[in-house]
Amino acid sequence: MNAAAGQFGLLLAAVLFCLGLAGVLVRRNVIFILLSIEIMLNAAGLAFVTAGALWRQPEGQVMFIFILAMAAAEVALGLAIVFRLFYRFKTVDVDVAARMRG
Amino acid sequence: MDAFLYMAGGMAVLATVLVIVSTSAVPALLYFIVSLLAVALIFYLFGAPFAAALEVIIYAGAIMVLFIFVMMMLNLGSDTKRQEREWLQLRGWIGPVLLAAVLMGEIVFVLYREVRPGDGAGLVGAKEVGMALFGPYFIGVELASLLLLAGLVGACHLAGKAAEGEEKGEEEP
C-alpha cells in the first residue's frame, strides 16, 4: 500500500471515531450509546490495522484482535446492564438512571 | 485499488452517519453492519485479510447478533422513538458542529501534509499475525482470555439478577 492509502485509512478512522463520539453525546437511548461505543472501538481498530499495514508489521492486527476481545467483553457486560436498566425502569433512556439511589 | 478504497471509505462514513441519526433500532443495526463490512473491505485492501475475516465473523456476526437478540427481548415501543426525534433538533448542536468542523479541517491538513515512509504492495497474512500473537504477545493473549472470563461472569451475574428481580417484582423508584 502507498502513503496516500495510509493517510486515507487514518483519516477514515478519525472520521468514524468522531461519528461514534457524536453518537454517544447525542443519543439518550442506551442501545444507541452502546452501538456508538462499538463504532469508536472499530475506528480504533481501523487505525491500528492501517498503521500495521503502513509499516508492514503484524503488530497492528495483533492489537486489533485484542480490541476485538475487549469489545466482545464490553458489549456482553453493557447489554447485561441494559437488561437491569430495562427491568427496573421499564425504559432504555439513560437519563432515567440518573435518579438511581445506590 | 484506490477507487475501491475511497468508495468503501465513503460507504463506511455514510452508513455510520445513518446509524447515528436513525430513530429506530433495527435499521440502525443494519446500517452498522454495512459500515463494518465496508471497513472489512478496507482491511482487505490494506493487505490484512485475517483482520478482515475477524471483522466480518466476530463484529458483524457475533456482536451484532447479540445486539439484535437483546433488542428483540426488550421490544421497544414508539415512545422512545418520538423522544429521540425531539433530541435531534438542529438548534442544539450547530455550534459544537462548527467547532468540530474546524478541528476536522486541521486533522485533514496535518494528515495530508505529513510525509510517510513505505511504498509498494505488502501483505501481512494470518501466519505472521499468529506467530506474533503466540510469540512475543503471549501474555496479552492470556490477559484477553482473563478479560473474556470476567465479562462472562459479570454478564451472568447482572442479567441473572435482572431476570430474578423481575420475577419477584422489584420495587419501582
Individual helix count of chain B? 7
**What would CATH call the class of chain A?**
Mainly Alpha
Radius of gyration of CA atoms of chain B, rounded to a whole number:
21 Å
Helix-strand category of chain B: mainly alpha
Mean pLDDT of chain B: 74
Span between termini of chain A: 53 Å
Helix content of chain A: over 70%
Shape of chain B: flat
Strand content of chain B: under 5%
Task: Count the beta strands of chain A.
Answer: 0
The ordered string of helix (H) and strand (E) elements of chain A is HHH
Biggest sheet of chain B, in brief?
Answer: none
Mean pLDDT of chain A: 88
For the termini of chain B, the CA-CA separation is 57 Å
Approximate strand percentage of chain A: under 5%
What's the number of helices of chain A?
A: 3
Report on the biggest sheet of chain A: none
| Residue windows where pLDDT falls under 50 for at least 5 positions of chain B | 114-120, 168-173
Shape of chain A: elongated
The percent of residues in helical segments of chain B reads over 70%
Number of domains of chain A: 1
Task: Write a brief caption for the model.
Chain A has 102 residues and is mainly alpha-helical. Chain A has three helices and no strands. The relative contact order of chain A is 0.13.
Question: Mind explaining what this structure looks like?
Answer:
- The complex is a heterodimer of chains A (about 100) and B (about 170).
- Chain A has helices spanning about 5-25, 30-55, 60-90.
- Chain A is mostly helical.
- Chain A has one domain: Helix Hairpins (Orthogonal Bundle), CATH 1.10.287.
- Chain A is elongated, with a radius of gyration of 17 Å.
- Chain B is an all-alpha fold and about 170 residues long.
- Chain B has helices at about 1-20, 25-45, 50-75, 80-85, 95-115, 125-135, 140-170.
- At the A-B interface, helix 1, helix 2 and helix 3 of A face helix 1, helix 2, helix 3, helix 4 and helix 5 of B.
